[in-house]
Fold this protein.
Amino acid sequence: MPERQPLPSRPAPSSRRRFGRRTWTDLGLQSGALVLAFLLTSVILLVAGAPPFQAYVEIAKGAAASFTDISNVLVAWVPLLLASAGVLVTFAAGLWNIGVEGQIVLGAVLTTWVLRLLQDTSLPPAFIVVLAIIAGIVGGALWAALAGILKTFGGVNEIFGGLGLNFVATALTLWLIFGPWKRPGIGSMSGTEPFPEQLGLPTVGGERLSLWSLGLGIVAVIAVYVLLERTHVGLRLKAVGLNQRAAFLLGVPTWQYALLAFLLCGGLAGLAGAVQVTGVYHRLIPSISSGYGFLGLMIGMLIAYKAIWVAPVALFFAALNIGSIQLPIVLKLDSTLSGVLQGALVLFVLLVEGARQRYSRRAPSTMVAGPVPGTSPPDDVGAV
Amino acid sequence: MEIRLIDIRKHFGPVKANDGITLTVPAGTIQGILGENGAGKSTLMKILSGYQHADAGRIELDGRPVHMRSPADAIRHGVGMLHQDPLDFPPMRVVDNLLIGAPGRLIPQRREAVSAVAGLAGSLGLSIDLKAEVGSLTVGERQQLELLRLLWLGARVLILDEPTTGISARQRQELFDTLRRLAAQGKTILFVSHKLEEVEELCTRVAVLRQGRLVGEALPPFRVERLVGMMFEREVTPGERFACTPGKTLLRLAGLGAEHGRIRLEGLDLEVKAGETIGLAGMEGSGQSLLLQTCAGLRPVTHGRIYLDGADLTGKTYRQFKKRGVAYVPATRLEEGLIPGLSLADHFLLTENKPGFFINRERGRRTAEERIARFNIKGTPTSPVESLSGGNQQRALLALVEPGSKLMLLEHPTRGLDVESVIYLWSKLKERCGRGEAIIFTSSDLDELLRYSDRILVFFAGRVSEPLDAATTTVDELGELIGGASRSGDPVDAVSAWPGGDGRAPDDAGCHASGAPENGDA
């Protein structure tokens, strides 16, 4: 029995099949993609007149040379974990939740709002922080629900809805920072007035790393894995994602599950925003989401929607991001090099996957299969 | 053109779809290709028409070896395939459809194409309006269009995959006449079908495939039992008509009206008793599916009411219909029925009644194994549904219908299935009727309608006939009604032949608004 049938459009969202006979071939191909990504980046570096090897060494040093570096990597890992885990839920339901960025922002905004409301009360600080984090989860979920409602009842594709809501979220943050929540005197790009230390998550050894947020991130990934692989809710989400019409006829309330996927993803994104406020910045800053949402989407694609790979891949991405911070200082290179590397990596992995499907033993019989049912945007991902 | 297929092999993983097939088809032959589902017919035809590539083997046309890399390549070599579903572009005009596959010049040569194709059509006795939009043509006309297109592109070998599905008896006759004329001109026709009687009527040679191998060839006069024997390794006798003892009224339609697109139903009155099977006959798109979907709660009721077991379900949602025991099984298995990417076990888990939160994989596997055994599905609990053959997909679909259902609405339940699967499926369905479930189904196979229905409704041009008694209707009568002829003495027949046997007419059976079709034009 062929393990994957001629639907190259979308990998079957199941991690169980990952560990078949093909695991080693797969691993080899993915490593090949990694090598290709580094090659392409090296070429770019050479064109820019920088020594590639040294650049990679600097990135590695920047990510793991000291305890501070490692803790910074872990700090960046948490929102990546949360965002990636979130988009896996929407991917499972066949949805492209581009709005995950905005959902992170709204999580941060609502967290900030609750902290501002309660910071001068006599409530215990720990209680305020918990309330603020819950508010962040709710904020992200509501922002996602908006995209979901636009899609379900307004016929607005979630990509366009999400994109629009991202802009609205950014504008909202800027308005808050420069308007109602501006620092005494004059508003500035550095954000709102920082909260007192006791209104933040406790950190480790003078670093920005909080074991609480780390724990939340890891629990979220495990929860999403269990949800998708072990529960009926996850199975129904996948059914909706793979064939909405058939799922409906088999008795799955489809739009309700699509909305649920948005809510869960938004909640996790909102949690990421809340963690950024309470654990990292202790205030609202203009670019609070730092692109973690988009990175989460990239990770989702990179791991072919398989929850089990979220943690290592997100860690790798976090290390790249933190490691490349050193580049401008040492090599006069822009730190966006890590972005180039990550983008190249995603492209090559998808390319290798497409090539594998095309040149595997079977001919591409999809030529005659006609349109894949329910060709929503996620269907096109694997095909490249 | 003479075709020689030499030792064609094609494997899909461990499945040998074609396992060394060698077949010679002389020019001017109408070659029937027979075989049950999964026998390798489609794969062989796809290889010959360039859609798929053989793992090994050669193709020779008129003695010259050829390599076909794509369908466009195949048509350059003179091989054209007519697919089961028309591969055309409904919103475009006929002439533009013709030009799409034609060797490209920057500016389409419409006028040339029109005159050439019109000439071709004339020589074959076909009439087709080249300026019409494809969407306005019937399935039969679209088939003719596709046939003309392939001929115009220079096809000398025509492959037809189940071409009589969904077309009327008259269109079938026209198609057969055309094919005979083409064969007389020296064209080679490959005719793939499950329907033995068609092969018997039309073909001048027959090849039978089984499990990827050529198991026999035959020349006329064909002995049907022998062909069936070769297809299945044993002779299959179609089951007897099933007698039905109707129980209480299960479904009642009172003046039902519904609308979808151009199709409208009006004032339909019908009573379906428990244990009864109602067949819906008619050309594709005459409202049969609309009636099924309305009875399933998938389409809104515009007039009248639907009662199930005495309860008024008018305006309820599909899920509420489903909860009350109405099961709808769509015709397209992988598009609407099953979820490609999920396994059989996943499907059974998905339709579990009270599933709880966590998946019980062990229970899922047990359910799947039990249903797989009961419905004779060739597959394992972990088989992805898209890896099953059509017949097994259909069995899986029926296995998914909850055991407690009362009314099954089946859209073309046996379309594309081989004889054995059809008989098997109906024996399963009739078992359920015996337990008091009722069935309403659509089919384009007249024999199936007559054999398995108790009563038949004929749909024609927006009208619905009085229910016919299937036991006393002949294939010819049914065919004429589908084509639009009226039937004399209609109401009397329907009443006196009520399958209960006591001559008592079901109170509301029949439909006043529509009455017997009066216009005899087809």
